[in-house]
Each structure stands twice: as structure tokens, then as C-alpha cells.
Write a structure and sequence with these properties.
By secondary structure, the chain is an alpha/beta fold. It contains 37 helices and 24 strands. The radius of gyration is 32 Å and the shape is globular. The chain binds thiamine diphosphate. It is an enzyme of class 1 (oxidoreductase).
Length: 931
Amino acid sequence: MNAPLPLQHLLSAMPNESLTIDPDPQETAEWREAFLALAASQGPARARQMLDELARLARAGRIGWQPELSTPYFNTIAVDAQPVFPGDLAIEERLGSLMRWNALAMVVRANQAYGELGGHIASYASAADLFEVGFNHFFHARNDSAAAPGRPEQGSAPAGGSAAHEVASVGANRHRGDLVFFQPHSSPGVYARAYLEGRLAEQDLMHFRQELTAPAAQTGQGARGLTSYPHPYLMPDFWQFPTGSMGIGPISSIYHARFMRYLTHRKLLNCEGRKENGIHVDKRRVWGVFGDGEMDEPESMSALTLAARERLDNLVWVVNCNLQRLDGPVRGNGRIIDELEKLFAGAGWNVIKLVWGSDWDGLFARDTTGALTRAFAHTVDGQMQTFAAKDGRFNRDNFFGQNEELARLAQGLTDEQIDRLKRGGHDLVKIHAAYAAAAAHTGQPTVILAHTKKGYGMGSGGQGKMTTHSQKKFDETDLIEFRNRFNLPLSDEQVTSLSFYKPAADSPEMQYMHEHRQRLGGYLPKRETACDVVPVPAIDSYAAFALAANGKEMSTTMAFVRLLGGLLKDKALGPRIVPIVADEARTFGMANLFKQIGIYSSVGQRYAPEDIGSVLSYREALDGQILEEGISEAGAIASWTAAATSYSVHALAMLPFYIYYSMFGFQRVGDAIWAAADQRARGFLLGATSGRTTLGGEGLQHQDGTSHLVAATIPNCRAYDPAFAGEMAVIIDHGMREMLVEQKDVFYYVTLMNENYAQPSLPAGVAAEVIRGCYKFNSYLPIPDNGYSAKTSKNVALLGSGAILTEVVKAAQLLAAQGIAAEVFSVTSWSELARDGQACEQRALAGDPAPGQPFIAQQLQASQGPMIAATDYVRAVPEGIRAFVPAGRRYLTLGTDGFGRSDTRAALREHFGVDAQSIVRAALHALARHG
Ligand SMILES: Cc1ncc(C[n+]2csc(CCOP(=O)(O)OP(=O)(O)O)c2C)c(N)n1
């Protein structure tokens, strides 16, 4: 895994503290010499073999020795193992400097105009070289269209690449692109590149973080506002992956890489390297550039072992170790690179440390005693940050001045040269070597731990400063210093006026930049949406049992699983379905699917399952369809997001159904769902065992009473709480058509219950009303036998959703028995009703003379008397429609606010006041007050 180090570093690295009490130094020296002689004469492979053998002996003898997972603070790739840099260093450095400048100018200008806009410079300053090497040499754009990759239409990019590059791009024609996750606070740098590439105009840059005031938002034309961070929702033709919320990018990148394997293994889309018609098509990779602070997020870490277990060698992470986060150092008193090295190596990743730049090579070569190794070994990151923030003189005195050996190493260097000694993540040659090694590595995911400086080149005011994360004000001196530092071809006037700079179209820089992107298939980031229409079968062909249930008893979960089984059998749609579970398939009665469609496993099934003879046998298979994610809701939702965005990322529409305990959805991984919404996900989330009282004995932590509240806040999420199988079928059918046929960017949240009850057939003609959120289920008139007359009776309208509708129906019957006429409305979606009402209101406020009447008002119009709404969710859910129910009538809501309890459904419903008796009481109370 790690390339060999020069021998003197091995020598210096080996002594450790235990040797200070070495009882037999002579013997120790003999062993060391023997080992070094072996390595020198027979090479590293033989040396490793010998170490393995010794380790085996130590283990067998219970010696209690543990190998260290960390290596010295050096580059993993030895100088003589570096490939020749395949580009023009000078041009790439000039280009990089221009990106840095334009990014800086964009942020500073925005803040000069409006101090409140914010923005970041320091993160990109540290990541710029990491990005640029990727852009120039590694990040492959999608290029699977018939046409060769063209130049961007917008801007003034020159036409035509060299003949050699045209040929190269033909070879790249069928590549569907790498997936690149950009560190969010570095977005200005990505915009700066798109500007040089001609994909964004100067006017666009002038509207960084001004999405609403930009002309495009006002008039639909002209400059558009650039989003703060990568937000596909807001720049749908540009950003692919939202990364603004720390941790979501990392975990998402792993599941995307795994999903590409899934598509390959299921023979839906080959993402591996291969020959096609005699042309080599490169393997598609996922590249993720993330922050070292971001690695603290549980989501960042939680799927590392999955990536290793799945041998995801299509995944490369570049961790930008600038040693700082927002407030201060990531590990002031330790070394984050060492810590991450151990962590990733322990998880089974290939680790490439990219610590020092090329100008350190000479120092290491001259350091025959290992003084540098020893110095780094006791330099913690907080100190390293101080070295970054101070000048060459300080570094000479305080780092190289630590002892004679170090001082001697620095003797030939001026203070300025010391100041400019590069960290690995700022050295294009070293970065290229690391990326090339990562791309060539097989059998494991790779992480590159790139040592950088936060605010690199931002001068005395920014580089390495504790406050640099949010620095966006530069005075004239700082700007001139920056110009000089990066040799920018700008006059003082251009600098102080923060002019954007773009070289002439025929300049070597621009030619070079375009040619390199042409070779890699075009420009990125770029989000595309064209994909095939997947036909959805007629609803009767798979859901007749639910539509005409005829009073059959079942739960809506059972009905859903049966419906899913039917859909999976459809020839066109079936293969596109991705059932996802987080270790709860048996809870939801899905075990029958194990055998029918198999559980995806990248290695098939290497064991005879205990239940092999059973029809429900646990079957893992290479082409298995179910994604069984184990107990990781964060993983399962990332997996769902990968499938739900396949239509865009892979131009292959897939339809994920992730079914889970509803409590562990929006509450547990709400932010990940929000990110999926940003990414315009299309798919179904099924919140099963839902409702605070419908899931009986499980108690407080399991009983969900809030998911619909949160779901309602996500604009492209359509949330439904159907009571009956027929309603559920209509909703799923409609959702599939919206997503697969009409290709709308929506996803559906549907709650399912585990309570068995008689399922009525869906009344004819109500399907459209089910989708809009409410239909009249039935009327319950006073029973004449009891001496009541319909004419003289009082009236109520009862609304209910999900399993509580059964309580509402019982209540209606009880009321009828007491001489009160009750009309029952099944509310399938409180949030859709509320949105419809809000839309009417908005139209009215906008002066529309015919804003329309809210749908819920229309539905309730013909009913009379007070309206009582009951759900298994907190009252705020039915409260959402209060403003839109018919005026002048009492509207009373019943819900399940408070903590859940373990008990029977009946006891729970009584406790929360959502049982039939409570509904009756509420109706009588309302009638008493308002008659
Ligand atoms: C979930 C989440 N929590 C907090 C933040 C606020 N935040 C933005 S950047 C940042 C520090 C990032 O540090 P690091 O990952 O080291 O990146 P750097 O900018 O230093 O390169 C924080 C805490 C966020 N964006 N997302």
C-alpha cells in the first residue's frame, strides 16, 4: 500500500520510546541492520514478507504486539515513484492563480456591495490546487451523447481544439462522467473556473449570493444569481451534488459509488472500465473533496467500512487537511492527518498521505539523520497552523531553529524560500502523483490526506489565521500583496477595483484549459436531466386487490408489500425498482421478496443459508435487487438518494422505495432528506409502523407523531397518510406517473400502518380527490329506529387520516346512534390541502380576481356543523388547514402531542384523545357551543 521510504527515514522512524530503555542496544542494532540489508538487497516486497512472518510468530506466541497504523509524517509516494507530470506546470499555475483571483474578487465584491451576504475565500484558497489537478487531468465529464463535446455556448471561449484532442474526445464518447463532490465553501473557485471556461458570464459572478435580485430571477433573462454552496435545486443545470451540510457529501459519495456497482452488477448500466467497439471506456469514479473538520461528522465516518467491504475502488476521497475548521484548529493538540490515516487504514482504505511539496524533497534527501522526522513527530497541528500564519523568518527561527541539524538544513534557503516551502496539497506534481496512484489502485477505496494551508496566499491578514474562515474583506495593501504573490497580470487599478480577469481566447492558458477539458469529455460540474420514460403499468394490473378490497382485512403495509410484489413483476418497470430496507424487511412482511428478487451482494452468497429449504429463504445474489442496508438509516437514505437521482446522474431512471420505521425517517435523517430534495430526488419514502398510537407496545422512542409535520416543510415532497389500501394504491400509481412518465422532480412520503382492519373498496371516481388530499368517505345519518329524524338532527363533519380514520368512522356511528348526522371525510394529505389553500391565498394576495376556492373548502362546503379533525400525529398537522376550511364553523383538532407510551392501541388512543369516544366528546362539545 505505502511506497518505500528512503532508508535514512526508516532509520530515523524506527526508534521509539521503548528503545530509551533498550536492555541490549547491540542486539537491537544487529536486528535493524539485518532488516535494512534485506530491504536494500531484496526490495520492499521481501521486506514486507519478512515482517509478516515476524508478525505471525509474534501473534502465535501471544507476544502482545500490535502494528502501528500510522506512518511517519511523509508523503506516501516516494519521489522516485512519482510519474512524470503530464502537463505544463507554468500554465497550470497561471490558470490556478486566475481562479484564485476571480474567486476572491467575486466574494469581496459581493460583500462590498452588501455586507450581509457572506461568502468564503479561505477554504478555496486551500483547495484550489486540489481542484485544478482534478479539472485538468482526472475529473471526467459526461459525454455519452452522439455529438462530440462542444464548447460552451455562453461566453467568449474560442472554438476548436487540436486534432489530437478531437481524437481523444472520440475515445471518451461513451463515458457517462465521474461524480465530483466539491467542498461547499469552495464554490467560488468552481464558479471562477466556469467563468474562464465561458459557462458563466462576468455578470453572473457579479451576482454571487444574490439569487433573488439577479436579473434572471426578476425577468427570466440575463445574469443569474450564483448559489452560496452547491445547490442543484437552485442551479439545476450546474451543480449535481449538494454538500453544504457537513457530512452529507461524504456519506452520499460512498453510496453513489456503491450504487454504480449495483447498476453494473444488475447489468443495467456498466460503470466499470471496459472496451466498447474497440475503444477503451474508462471506469467511472466518484471523487469527493471534503474538509478535515468535516470528518468529525458521524455521517462522514459511518460508511467507511462499507466502502472497504464493497471494495469500492471507484471511490477517491481527497481530504483537504488545512488543519483548520471554522473556529480554530481541527486537532490543535494532535495531528489530524495521523488520526485520519489510522482511522481510514483501520477501516480498510488505501491511504495516500500527501504531506509535503516538491521543494521539501531536497531537504529530506539532505536530512541524513532523520531530524525532520523527529521534528514533525512532536509538532502538533496547532503549532503547524502557527507556522502557516507566520513568515519565513519566524519559521527559520522556530521550526528550523529547534536544533543544529534542522538549522543546517535551512542554511541555503532565504526567508522567502522558507516561507514558500509548499505543503503537499499545494504542489501540482505531488497532487497529480497522488491522484494517479488513487485512480490506478484496485480493490480498495482510496483516501488522499492532502496537507494544505487554510487561506493559502491570503497574506498576513488571512493565511493560517484563526479567523480566516469567514474573512472576506481585503484592503488595498492585501489585494496588491495577493496580486504580487500569485504574479497576476493585473494593474494596480484592476486590483483595487476588483476587476475580473479572463485571458484572451487565443492565449496559451485558455487554449490549454479548453483542450484539457475536451480530453476529459467536456465541462463540469454539469447537471443533466434527460432520461428515458419508464412506462407505468395500468393500476388494475397490479393493485386490483387494493382498489376492490371488499372489506378484506389487512394493514396498509401488507397491501403495499403485495402491490410492490406486483410492480416488480412488470417487465419494463420491475427492473427499475430499488427496494431499500434498513434491517426491517421482516417487520414489514417483506421476507417473501428475499427469494423472489434477491438481496444485492457484490460477492453473491458464500454460505448456505440456515433456511435454505424455505420459500422465504434469505437469498443474497450479485444481481439481487433489494438493498439491505443494515442498521444505518443514514446509509439507507444515502442509498435511496443515489437511486432517486439516477435519472440525472446516470441518465437512467430508477425508482427507489425505501421502507422504514417512520420515526427513524424525518426525525432521524431529516437533513439528509432535505439534501435529497435539493438534489431533486424522485422516489418513494414509506414511513411504516407509523402513527403514535397505531404502533402499540413499542413506546416513546418508536412512535412517530411528527413525520408529517416535517415532510410538509419540504417543497418537493408530497406527503400522504392514507387510511385504506385503495387510497394508497392510487397515490403510488400517481406518484410513479409523475416521476417516471411526466418526469417531475417530486418525491413521495407515504405512511403505512401495521394495524389490520377491514379495507373498503375505493369508491368510484374519487382517485383525483385522493391525490388532492380529501374525499367524502361516507355519511352516517341518525338511525330512525332510535326515534331520530334526519331532518331535525344536528350535523357534524368528521375528518380523519391514516388508521385514525377507523376511529372517526366509529365515532360517526356512535353520533348517529345519538341522533347526530355525521359526514366522514378521509383526508389523505393534510399538507397537500394546506399547500392548495396557500396557493389560493397567494393568488388572492397577488390581486388575481379569480384566485379559486381552497379544495378543502370545496370538499366541506356541502357538509354542516362543526368540523372535527383527528390524526395519529401532533395537532399541528391538521391545524395546517385551519385557514382554509369553510368560514363561520368551529374547527376542532385532535392529535397525539406529547411522548408516546408502551400500551395497547386502545389504551394509547384513549390516552391521547384520538379514539372514537374522544372524537364523539369533541363533536358534542362543539355542537353544545355552536349548535
Ligand atoms: C452540518 C453542518 N454543521 C455546521 C456547518 C457550519 N460550517 C460550515 S464550514 C464549517 C467548518 C468546515 O471546516 P472544514 O471541513 O475543515 O473545511 P475548511 O473550510 O476548513 O476547508 C462549519 C462548521 C455546516 N455547514 N454543516
